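task queued by scheduler; priority normal; single chain, no ligands, no partner chains; default sampling; output format set to structure tokens
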Amino acid sequence: MYNILTLNKIASCGTDKFDTAKYNIVDSCENPDAVMVRSASMHEMEFGSNLLAIARAGAGVNNIPVDKCAEQGICVFNTPGANANAVKELVIAGLLISSRKVPEAMIWAQSLKGNGAEVGKMVEKGKSQFAGPEILGKTLGIIGLGAIGVLVANAAVALGMNVIGYDPFLSVKAALGLDPRVKAVADIKDIYAASDYISLHIPFNAETKGTINNETIAMMKDNVRILNFARGELVDSDAIIAALENGKVAAYVVDFPSDEILGVKNAIAIPHLGASSPESEDNCAKMAADEIIDFIENGNIRNSVNYPDAALTAAGTKVCVMHKNVPAVISALTTVLGDAGMNIDNMLNKSKKDYAYTILDVSGDVNDDIAAKLAAVDSVIKVRVIK
């Protein structure tokens, strides 16, 4: 029986996917076999020896110590694309409210309460202060053409915008899903120079921190509008505040409020609503459950952020090995199996940066002694035998 620990409320349509004859779904457990999590921070947690996988019901994994997990042979999954439509819809709302000053106008309209029959006249007199441009015919620059970026690009094209996109790691799947009217550029500077609106859809890491800063803002058009529904740290707070104050940036819409940005004129802070829809939460929960089940029962990895994706259909016993991505590991593994009289019918090896994953389809019984010898191979982190 496997124990699956939930650190946040996970939609039942996801937890219901686990066969109750094989899995216990618990909200407290000292040494779980897997964890399902949304926003709860795991950086201070100690991981037990049983822990095989962590599935984040969402895209961002900043709340999970991904590197630590890789070192311990714990596969970390996320659910790319499961919340993409929910985020896309909010980005489109962001485009509109950044142009037409809708939040400010609504707050102002509420302030007219109590003026009786004069409200209509006051509205007509005061509405001009909230006028703004239409998005039709304007240029939207999208930085990052993943699942969300592609949907935003296609929706913006349908709304009559000119759309340009930048993504040096554009996948074949994303490229095929992109409207042919979207122009992909090879230099991010082209986004800055040509865009009336810029929308960020890239992951946050050491390389992308502060992507929007004083230098990049200086390359942009005057009165540019910037939308950040990816991660707050992608935009340097001091730089965006200065640009809003001097008028270089007409509006900044961010789904990650911070103390610095709250109250700044023309900064529109939304309380992290990007994936906050029942449909999105359901999609993420179901996808996370499927990832854990396939990994535990079949050893297959799909949508991992710290180990390579790898899937192999085996006729015999599956030996799944997490190891460092260094030379001679595979030959050492096959030697152990060969010395034990095991025949390898099929094999798959994949790598991702410093780590690799090898699946071996073996004829015969891989007993505890053989498994221990495989685990003792230099640079091997974890060995699982699935019969």
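post-processing summary
- The two ends are 15 Å apart (CA to CA).
- The chain has a mean pLDDT of 96.
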